[in-house]
Design brief:
- It holds the Pfam family OEP.
- By secondary structure, the protein is of the alpha+beta class.
- Helix content is about 65%, strand content about 15%.
- The protein is elongated and about 155 Å long.
């Protein structure tokens, strides 16, 4: 008996998703990156405001310049132009007036990066949710597989009991008894494998949700027919997939980066206002003044740095464009694959449902024939195996169907409303 199968009420799928959003390390990292991008944008906005600096200096010179003069008949006289030891205090306010668009495009770039990071966070959450859903469906599949294996053991054991009773009475040959015993051993081995599958699936779900101690409540999977159009799913993904939206914003930001690199070649104008207080001038004590200046900076040569930065910005823009195209191709392929798997699983479900009904009838008929001594043990063993296979096929098909829906939901950024099934 697997302990988890006999646990009391535990976490449901929606609760597991909430736990994953809170505990998953990838989501935590993405959330931090989103915060960082917000602060970077605010920093870019702050560069539009004036900067105020306070500066204090204490000077000590080994010598000070002097001025000499003579007025005959007086002897020559000299006096220092600066004190050897003095202090200087200065407060300045600098306001950029024109930067060639550098500040404007820098703010636009950082805003695009902030928005891109928001969509990356949404993509990370959607990816984790899809993974948790697939883990949950796999765990449900494993739980049902254990139940099927337990039924297999029970059916094989009952047949072994009947075969042994008939053999003891001399009604059937020893071969029937041995065949029933082999089938029972196979059932026990199948149960062991099913339990192992369940243990691994449970641990995978716990790892992805970041929980270890809590109980997990797994419902049996159901099949709910949907009718989607592949081309419409691809179109919706191109519009709503968070990763593509993030890359579009990154492309927008890269274009601003190119414009920002061009702004390096333009003049920069700023205004400076300040207050200064010093005692460096001999004979007048403390001296203070206010001043203002209009500063125009014209870049002439910087060792080709601006040229290479411009080329770098252009290459980065091209790189993001290629990344966006690659992502669209991957998402399109993912939707095609998931949609194909969905249709395949749906077909298998319908076939398996018929197989299960036929297998039930075959097993019931085989048991009755065997008890009436008109059938063989081989027929019963084959009927049990056929029934177990049909149940397993149906279980796996339903799990594949739900996993494919989770994949489609991730790729499309949220599945559209299902159209009425085609009759």
């Amino acid at each position: 008996m697997i302990p988890s199968l006999s646990m009391a009420k535990g976490l449901t799928l929606s609760q597991l998703i909430e736990k994953a959003i809170t505990n998953n390390p990838e989501i935590k990292i993405a959330r931090k990156e989103e915060k960082i991008s917000q602060y970077q944008y605010r920093e870019a906005i702050g560069k539009f405001f004036p900067s105020i600096n306070l500066e204090y200096k204490k000077f000590s010179h080994s010598d000070a310049p002097e001025m000499s003069f003579s007025l005959p008949p007086l002897p020559p006289t000299s006096f220092p132009l600066l004190e050897k030891h003095y202090h200087d205090f200065q407060a300045t306010l600098t306001q950029p007036l024109f930067t060639g668009g550098y500040l404007f495009y820098n703010a636009k770039l950082k805003k695009a990066a902030e928005t891109a990071q928001f969509y990356k966070f949404q993509d990370c959450v959607a990816k984790v949710i899809a993974e948790v859903k697939k883990d949950y469906y796999t765990l449900s599949e494993a739980k049902t597989a254990v139940k099927i294996a337990e039924d297999y053991v029970k059916a094989a054991k009952n047949h072994l009991r009947d075969a042994k009773a008939f053999y003891d009475e001399g009604i059937v040959a020893r071969r029937d008894y041995l065949e029933a015993e082999v089938k029972y051993r196979e059932a026990l081995e199948a149960l062991t494998k099913a339990k192992s599958f369940y243990t691994v699936a449970l641990e995978k779900l716990k790892t992805d949700t970041g929980i270890q101690e809590e109980n997990i409540e797994v419902d049996k999977l159901s099949y709910k027919p949907v009718n989607y159009n592949e081309s419409e799913l691809i179109e919706k993904a191109f519009q709503s997939n968070p990763l593509l939206m993030a890359l579009r914003k990154m492309k927008e930001g890269a274009n601003y980066g190119v414009k920002m690199s061009y702004s390096q070649f333009l003049p920069k104008i700023s205004v400076i206002m300040g207050y200064e207080k010093t005692d460096q001038y001999p004979g007048i004590g403390e001296f203070d003044e206010t001043f203002g200046a209009l500063v125009v900076q014209i870049p002439i040569f910087e060792g080709t740095q601006r040229y290479w930065r411009t080329l770098e910005a252009k290459e980065n823009s091209k790189k993001v464009s290629l990344t966006l195209k690659q992502a669209k191709d991957k998402i399109k392929l993912g939707i095609i694959a998931a949609f194909s798997q969905l249709k395949s699983a749906e077909s298998r479900i319908k076939t398996a449902q018929t197989m299960v009904e036929q297998a039930k009838e075959l097993l019931r008929d085989s048991k009755e024939r065997y008890k009436a001594h008109v059938g063989t043990s081989t027929e019963v063993c084959d009927a049990i195996a056929y029934y177990v296979k049909a149940e397993g096929t149906l279980n796996s098909a339903i799990a594949d169907y739900n996993r494919s829906l989770a994949e489609l939901e991730y790729f499309t950024g949220g599945l559209p409303a299902s159209q009425p099934p085609i009759k």
